[in-house]
């Protein structure tokens, strides 16, 4: 009887017997719903803020007498809008209610993860350009045309795309969104959810038909999975930021190199 009493006492201590069975499961479902709604709200607010800030910057450029094609001005404004909006939304959430985020200098093992992830992300990017080039050659020619027509603008976009954008995008999608989802879905669901939301952000990366734009953005979503896995394997946001920045930089350099060399 002593053994039975001991086990009974442990069970009573571990759960309040006055709580009906199933309440814990219901609470878990509520937690998952709350997490999903939170990340959706973060994404929507960040996208709206990006458009508002980008439109404001574009209007300021036009008012200031900036002379360039409408598409170029829009690209510059939206790039700047993304940096400002994502930094404010993700930074504000992480500081107030979000999961803790580690930004540590990579260890030797983590450096190996970075190298492998950069190779994989670059390969996926090359596959994307090859597929899109077959479907719509003008899609992959836009970058080269911009280098010829406005090299300074291209250089600015390259700096933003290879330095600033990876920082704020990883802060939002890996630090805030993936980190929040991880608390209720585990790493696999968190990576999948963050990568799914990464797709609509990049629908304008491949200008052309809606099908080409969706295919291009979906392939970028696969690259997002690489960033997410790198984050989960190392636990520091520095790693996906470096991987993201390096893979973006490779393509900016290759596009410019084909034109200038």
UniProtKB/TrEMBL annotation:
Top-level taxonomic group: Archaea
UniProt GO MF annotations: endopeptidase activity
The UniProt record lists the keyword Transmembrane: yes
Gene Ontology terms describing biological process: CAAX-box protein maturation
Entry keyword Transferase: no
Membrane spanning residue stretches: 35-64, 70-90, 111-132, 152-172, 184-205, 211-230, 237-260
Pfam families xref list: Rce1-like
Annotated ranges, domain CAAX prenyl protease 2/Lysostaphin resistance protein A-like: 154-250
Keywords linked to the UniProt accession: Membrane, Transmembrane, Transmembrane helix
Descriptive protein name: CAAX prenyl protease 2/Lysostaphin resistance protein A-like domain-containing protein
Source organism (scientific name): Halococcoides cellulosivorans
